[in-house]
Amino acid sequence: SPSSQLEVSGSTYATDGWTNVTPKILSYLGANKHLQTDHPLSIIRQRIVNYFYGAYRNQRGNPLFSVYDQMNPVVTVQQNFDNLLIPADHVSRQKSDCYYINQQHLLRAHTTAHQVELISGGLDNFLVVGEVYRREEIDSTHYPVFHQAAAVGVVTKDELLERNPGPEFFEEMWSGTLPDPKVILPSSKFMDQTKQPCHTLEAVKLMEHEMKHHVLVGLTKDLFGPRIKYRWVDTYFPFTQPSWELEIYFKDNWLEVLGCGIMRHEILQRSGVHQSIGYAFGVGLERLAMVLFDVPDIRLFWSNDSGFLSQFSEKDLHNLPKYKPISHYPQCTNDLSFWLPQDIEVDAGFSPNDFYDLVRSVAGDMVEQISLVDKFKHPKTGRSSVCFRIVYRHMERTLTQAEVNEIHKQIASASVDSFNVQIR
Ligand code: PHE
């Protein structure tokens, strides 16, 4: 009915003929996989953020980039499209491609949607990380919700001169023909794609070099290692000109990892920034995570299966494990608690790793995960007790409760024999 309303992240919206969000899609809001401890997408976010914090600092040693990772994914058509000079008839606006809440509001289709409000608020170097929503087929590499990190770096004429003293060609940089911010021409293929008319070639080349070779190649090498093969491919985005895609050579194919370019000057002008030039880029976190962790299917990032989630840890961000396929058969979880001998404690006479090896020897591939879930020291006797959680799951068949119980008993008695413990 025309008076229908929709409640989305705390606000109420009137629905209309544009509304096409589904309850299923709305259920992803607030899932925040990119902030979930030990989630592979959160690990990739931290790698990107740490790279920017570490590589770019001001004279006082503080990080140059600020990070926004909890912006509301509900944005206006103006934020997602108009502010970024995306033409009114551009295909990306179609109802068939986006999740609209109503004619004026949608779930952001890219994190670039926040760039104008942040620049207008006075920021010049920032990253926006969050989930984005696009209507797409579901296959092993597409999912209607995925995550992006988008960044902007804006530099003033004076800063650029300071960083690159000498050449007087910067004098010309802002003397080109400034665009009329009220008249937005599309950055079409018919215009000069080398540069915008307001920039000198030299200024563009300098910004391009800084963006490509310092920022983005630096990031790519930080993520994929110094030997990665990459190439730049010319492309088109309405909000940057010129624009490129960065591709890396991976498993015998060129794989697109990010889009970038020199910001359209109209966007800066309309955000109240003059005498500056900027770059912008956007990168998909799932794409990076699939390559870096060897995850074969994008749907796994939405899995709550502990067989998947337990494989990743943010304790060591620079040692990313390769994903090992999980079983499709059901899990069966059993706890085992025992008292350690007098005067023995965890890591003082008893090592959990010894127990893990014992479990592997007794149960072999029936065990998927083991973790130490509880440690306790009795206040009177002073004896230590530990509790291990064992998740049983076979790769090729469903385990019966009876055989799990039998193996669990064998683990208990082997522990008594090997470690002189007392089962509780
Ligand atoms: N927003 C673009 C996308 O989602 C990526 C991009 C960001 C490209 C910034 C250029 C500059 O594909």
UniProtKB/TrEMBL annotation:
Annotated protein name in UniProt: phenylalanine--tRNA ligase
Protein's organism: Drosophila simulans
Gene giving rise to this polypeptide: Dsim\GD10996
Keywords, in A-Z order: Aminoacyl-tRNA synthetase, ATP-binding, Ligase, Mitochondrion, Nucleotide-binding, Protein biosynthesis, Transit peptide
GO function terms (MF aspect): ATP binding; phenylalanine-tRNA ligase activity; tRNA binding
Family the UniProt entry places it in: Belongs to the class-II aminoacyl-tRNA synthetase family.
GO cellular component: mitochondrial matrix
Function noted in UniProt: Is responsible for the charging of tRNA(Phe) with phenylalanine in mitochondrial translation.
Reaction catalyzed: tRNA(Phe) + L-phenylalanine + ATP = L-phenylalanyl-tRNA(Phe) + AMP + diphosphate + H(+)
Organism ancestry: Eukaryota, Metazoa, Ecdysozoa, Arthropoda, Hexapoda
Chief site of localization: mitochondrion
UniProt cross-references to InterPro entries, sorted A to Z: aa-tRNA-synth_II, aa-tRNA-synth_II/BPL/LPL, Fdx_antiC-bd, Fdx_antiC-bd_sf, Phe-tRNA-synth_IIc_mito, Phenylalanyl-tRNA_Synthase
Compartment annotation: Mitochondrion matrix
Pfam entry (one): FDX-ACB
Domain FDX-ACB, chain residue ranges per copy: 327-424
EC number(s) on file: 6.1.1.20
Residue ranges of every copy of the Aminoacyl-transfer RNA synthetases class-II family profile domain listed in the record: 130-325
Superkingdom classification of source: Eukaryota
BP term (GO), one: phenylalanyl-tRNA aminoacylation
Keyword ATP-binding in record: yes
Top EC class of this enzyme: ligase
